[in-house]
Amino acid sequence: MQLERMVLLSLRFLHPSGGPKPVIPAISDYYDPATFERIKNYADKLDTPFLIVDTATVDRQYDELAGAFPYASVYYAVKANPAVEILSLLRDKGSNFDIASTYELDKVLALGVSPDRISFGNTIKKSRDIRYFYDRGVRMFATDAESDLRNIAKAAPGSKVYVRILTEGTQTADWPLSRKFGCQSDMALDLLILARDLGLVPFGVSFHVGSQQRDIGTWDAAIAKVKVIFERLRDEDGITLQMINMGGGFPANYATKTNELATYAEEITRYLHEDFGDELPLIILEPGRSLVSNAGVLVSEVVLISRKSRTGLNRWVYVDVGMFQGLIETLNEAIKFPIWTDRKGELEEVVLAGPTCDSADIMYEDHKYPLPLNLSVEDRLYWFSTGAYTTSYSSVEFNGFPPLKAYYI
Ligand SMILES: *Cc1c(COP(=O)(O)O)cnc(C)c1O
After folding, report:
1. Atom from ligand 1 closest to the CA of residue 164
2. Ligand 1 mean position to 385 CA, how many Å?
3. What local confidence, expressed as pLDDT, does residue 85 receive?
4. Which structural domain, as residue segments, surrounds residue 346?
5. Which atom of ligand 1 is nearest to the CA of 210?
6. What is the pLDDT of residue 23?
């Protein structure tokens, strides 16, 4: 399956004759021209590498999501981009926040967000961190294990808990999140009953179908599992759950195409009504990537271009940003960022690597990006759709390279 996908992808770019010619992505497929011009003008004055995030785009993406799911509450997954500029924008737009650590909590509370707009969504947490959240007023917690649930009952008595279930969909998510977290439905039933017995509020069920999930059908399967849990608890245990947390997984615009968000919304809404009828429970969404990715452009500079032998077929292009300055999602070439240059000319596929002394610091080798043959050292490469999971994933000092700089305009 994985192999098939790779072959198909390569065909799209490498087909020697007849197939589509390799191309540099069109700006207009990713940004409206005025936005890109604003970003580029700002970028022209700065030394690389850095990320520029257009906050107006985040604003628009939030409206688009909220408009597509008018019945849902949005809890922004702070880890995707924890910049104060993004958090305060989303605060002012009425978003809630999905938080994973005491550090994220402090940051969001310091911006004046009230604790009833916060959910502690990490299933892996220390008992004293649960208490820390509780002491600051947070009353909604995720769990997927009995010992964690017992910790919540002790450290956050009377709180609402929701149980995260395992879902299918690792094959079609570009950045899967579904194996490490969640439990089987049977265990979810046990935990929700235990939650009641421990004096907590068995509030609902959550899932995450995997980040950048390209198969909308994975939500159908997950919602069907949730329905069974709702019904069994109601019929057999007299417990009425109130909430479904459908996690993230909504698409950003990368080189590998996805459906439009509107199509996701239409389909998912249909699944919900098929399983839950007209009166839906409280629905929560936890978007990360889909809100901020498309707002960002990461700007890098070519440091070195070489071939590994006199007859080497592929050029190696080394840039001043890599796996350790924000591009870790290229691990296993999972996320394929569109890469743009203003150089024009005949294209040839290259291997793209970062500047550090670690041979893992190669972004794309199997999937070869076409870049102009006249590309030269000091030229800039623009990495599109990089607003999510770049700054927050950047290392602090590997080889002395500082964390990725970011500008919010
Ligand atoms: C990372 C994460 C999200 C965000 O997922 P995206 O695919 O980036 O939208 C949402 N919920 C939880 C619990 C997460 O861990």
Report:
1. 13
2. 17
3. 98
4. 2-53+293-408
5. 7
6. 84
289 lines ligand 1 (CB under 6 A): yes
Quick one: which H or E segment has residue 92? helix 84-92
User: Quick check: CB of 286 below 6 Å from ligand 1?
Assistant: yes
Q: Specify whether the CB–CB gap between 82 and 404 falls below 8 A.
A: no
Last residue of a domain, one of 256, 290, 324: 290
State whether 70 and 39 are in the same domain: no
Same domain, 256 and 298: no
The domain boundary residue, chosen from 275, 290, 305: 290
Q: What average pLDDT values come out for the chain (409 residues) when binned by 10 residues?
A: 46 45 87 96 97 98 98 98 98 98 98 98 98 98 98 98 92 85 97 98 97 96 98 98 98 94 98 97 98 98 96 94 97 96 94 97 95 97 98 96 97
- φ, ψ dihedrals at 291, nearest 5°: -85, -35
Clarify whether residues 125 and 239 are in a common domain.
Answer: yes
Q: Is residue 207 domain-shared with residue 277, that is, in the same domain?
A: yes
Ligand 1 close to Cβ of residue 164 (< 6 A): no
**Those residues with Cβ within 8 angstroms of residue 37's Cβ, 6 or more apart along the chain or in another chain:** none
Beta carbon of 115 within 6 Å of any ligand 1 atom: no
Q: State if residue 182 touches ligand 1 by the CB under 6 angstroms criterion.
A: no
Tell which one of 90, 261, 286 to mutate to probe ligand 1, the residue whose CB is within 8 A of the most ligand atoms.
286
The 10 Å CB-count burial string (b at 16+, else e) for 47-75 is ebbbbbbbbebbbbbbebbbebbeebbbb
Q: What pLDDT is stored for residue 20 in this prediction?
A: 53
Which of 68, 67, 65 is CA-nearest to residue 77?
Answer: 65
User: 103: burial class by Cβ within 10 Å (0-12, 13-18, 19+)?
Assistant: exposed
Please check whether residue 341 is in contact with residue 379, taking contact to mean a CB–CB distance below 8 angstroms.
yes
Q: What is the pTM of this model?
A: 0.93
Q: Of 379, 377, 401, nearest to 306 (Cα)?
A: 377
b/e string for 238-275 if b means 16 or more Cβ within 10 A? Answer: ebebebbbbbbbbbbbbbbebeebeebbeebbebbeeb
Answer yes or no: do 283 and 302 share one domain.
no
Q: What pLDDT does 21 receive?
A: 59
